[in-house]
Design a protein that fits this description.
By secondary structure, the chain is an alpha+beta fold. About 40% of the residues lie in helices and about 20% in strands. Strands 1, 10, 11, 12, 13, 14, 15, 16, 17 and 18 form a ten-stranded mixed β-sheet that branches. A four-stranded mixed β-sheet has the order 3-2-6-5. A four-stranded parallel β-sheet has the order 4-7-8-9. Strand 8, helix 15 and strand 9 form a beta-alpha-beta unit. Helix 11 packs parallel to helix 15, helix 16 runs antiparallel to helix 17 and helix 19 packs antiparallel against helix 20. The longest helix has 24 residues. The N and C termini lie far apart (about 70 Å). About 45% of the residues are buried. Bound molecules: adenosine monophosphate (AMP). Adenosine monophosphate binds next to strand 10, strand 17 and strand 18. The site of adenosine monophosphate has 15 residues, from strand 10, strand 17 and strand 18.
């Protein structure tokens, strides 16, 4: 019989973080010992040394591109000896890689499952201390993705699917009182739309028991409730008659969900009444799930644009941002669940990997600039306990599933310390999205610009369903293109002022000066037909992406021609900025 105690999880975390520096040295030693036989390490001349100084001197910082030749050999099954890790790689994870349009391959092994569970338990223990939930279930919008066998015989699927499939996942979900309302057949369904419908249906069947609503990324919750607005009457009818909608055609899902369904006119009436009583679906979550205590999922970084809509659906319920991690490995847990998502921080777990941070400094004169589009000055990476409060860094990760020093490409800011481990705020992805000449704009800059322009829509009671961008170099000079899908039609007048507002909202000095001298053409706002982003999501699902890990690509380059085509074919109108008089 396993005994799980929240106090002991908190205690363990407090102990681990007391002397995070020491734990880090020990963790690096273990990683290097476990992986000492790997070919990658053999070639670097470490000669069995396991101290951070030798590690840093011998092992280079890498990006995914540097690792591709090694990963390709693992995927192809060319060799049987350890290449990147000592312990066997049990499967391959496909990370989102949404910007490039093709998923990245990464090694996955049991160690990653362990660290995922540690992160889940830790943040749950802190969350439950402040917002205790009762025994019950969780309405979780989680989805597995397709899987296939590589030539080398390894299963390849998304990291989240690898986690959901693990034995450990179910045990941990029981421990942390987060059992999903839906049966496994719904999570592991081959059809995302049918899964989503059934998640909603199962959530309603168990509505009295649901303690919280969650998904990996906030986008999936918003997406689920947009769908709910369209299908709620069908859901009520299924519950009333105890007959599953004919839209569910996958036999395994039908069989599993039918078992849960029996005619329940009382529940159907109550849901129906609550839905018609709502105004624009405000507060639908607490209305239909009266025992839910909060809404949980990653809400930071590229998920921030969905917060407004999520707050609308969540009404009075608190939103809690989930942990910080990646397919490459986990990094940090949210141990301050009371902070609103905009201020969420993540405390690094010093035993799940070896962490370094590349200091990123803004050049003189740009320290206070509100834009993220600065060209950072980098210096030598520092250790976990050497970071300074208020400063920004790029995260570097070395895990048990890969002993390389992996640059994650994320900018984080140190908000404070929990004992001796830093609490990080996620700032943005580092890579530039929009750049034509001297202009530099990141995903965050785009997000800020869209947020600014969307204020003009609020007065009209319109909202942006989703957005992305592109650089059009077919005109001379080239110009930025912003794609918007709106909740309903907007007038020409409003849209042309939004377009001007967007153009001016890119405050990067390189952009503004290029616009003034006409080295960059007027920004173009292209309005998309309804449902375009659904088509894009479907396109990525077809490629093997998982909804659970889906992040809308905020930039679509020329190499991503399929998505670009979907966008361009669905433009209903387009506006050019007149903000700079040209
Ligand atoms: P993937 O490789 O698909 O697993 O995505 C990993 C990336 O998602 C990270 O490198 C971050 O950029 C982003 N991410 C993960 N967790 C968070 C978080 N809590 N807040 C913001 N972004 C996150």
């Amino acid at each position: 019989m396993r005994v799980f105690s929240l106090e002991s999880v908190i205690e363990e975390f407090e102990t681990l973080t007391k002397d995070a520096g020491h734990v880090q040295r020990e963790t690096l030693r273990k990683i290097l010992e476990q992986n000492g036989d790997a070919e990658y390490l053999q070639n670097l001349g470490l000669g069995g040394r396991t101290d951070p100084e030798s590690f840093k001197a011998c092992v280079p910082l890498v990006t995914h591109e540097d690792l591709e030749p090694y990963i390709r050999r693992i995927v192809e099954g060319e060799v049987t000896s350890p290449i990147l890790t000592g312990k066997p790689i049990t499967s391959i994870s496909l990370s989102s890689g949404t910007t490039q349009g093709k998923p990245k391959f990464l090694p996955f092994n049991e160690e990653l499952v362990q660290s995922t569970m540690q992160i889940y338990r830790t943040s749950f223990a802190f969350r439950n201390r402040e917002y205790p939930i009762g025994n019950g279930k969780a309405l979780q919008f989680i989805y597995s993705s397709k899987q296939f066998k590589t030539n080398g015989g390894l299963t390849a699927t998304t990291a989240t699917t690898n986690v959901y499939r693990s034995e450990q996942f179910k045990c941990t979900m029981e421990d942390i009182q987060s059992q999903c309302c839906s049966p496994d057949e719904v999570i592991f369904s081959p059809d995302f739309h049918q899964s989503l419908y059934c998640h909603l249906l199962c959530g309603l069947i168990y509505s009295a028991e649901v303690q919280f609503i969650s998904s990996t990324f906030a986008h999936s919750i918003v997406h689920a409730f947009r769908m709910f607005e369209l299908v709620w009457e069908d859901l009520c009818s299924d519950i009333r008659h105890g007959v599953l909608s004919s839209r569910i055609t996958v036999p395994s899902i039908r069989a599993a969900v039918c078992k849960l369904l029996s005619p329940n006119p009382t529940l159907a009436d109550s849901i129906y009444k609550k839905c018609v009583g709502l105004s624009s679906w405000y507060g639908v979550i607490p209305e239909l799930w009266p025992n839910a205590k909060y809404v949980y999922g990653i809400m930071t970084g590229s998920m921030e644009p969905y917060l407004k809509k999520l707050r609308h659906y969540a009404g009075s319920l608190p939103l809690m941002s989930a942990d910080y991690g990646s397919s490459e490995g986990w990094i940090a847990a949210n141990v301050n669940p009371g902070l609103p998502p905009e201020f969420a921080t993540f405390a690094v777990l010093p035993n799940i990997g070896y962490f370094e941070f590349i200091p990123l400094e803004r050049p003189e004169g740009q320290e206070l600039e509100n834009s993220n589009s600065v060209h950072y000055i980098e210096s030598e990476p520092v250790g976990l306990t050497e970071v300074e409060v208020g400063k920004e860094y790029e995260t570097v990760l070395t895990t048990f599933a890969g002993l390389y020093r992996y640059r994650l490409g994320d900018v984080v800011k140190v908000a404070g310390f929990h004992n001796s481990t830093p609490e990080l705020q996620f700032i943005c992805r580092r890579s530039l999205l929009l750049s034509i000449n001297i202009d530099k704009n990141t995903e965050r800059d785009l997000q800020l610009a869209v947020e600014e322009a969307s204020k003009l829509l609020a007065a009209e009671k319109l909202e942006i369903v989703d957005f992305t961008s592109h650089v059009d170099l077919s005109t001379d000079p080239g110009h930025y293109v912003i794609f918007w899908e709106l909740s309903s039609d907007a007038s020409e007048e409003v849209l042309s002022s939004c377009c001007n507002c967007l153009d001016l909202a890119f405050v990067d000095a390189g952009y503004a000066s290029s616009r003034k001298v006409r080295a960059i053409g007027p920004l173009e706002l292209r309005v998309l037909r309804k449902g375009t982003f659904q088509k894009i999501l479907d396109h990525y699902l077809g490629l093997g992406a998982a909804v659970s890990q889906f992040k809308t690509p905020r930039f679509v380059g020329p190499s991503n021609s399929n998505v670009l085509q979907i966008l361009c074919r669905n433009v209903s109108e387009s506006y050019f900025s007149t903000a700079y008089g040209c």
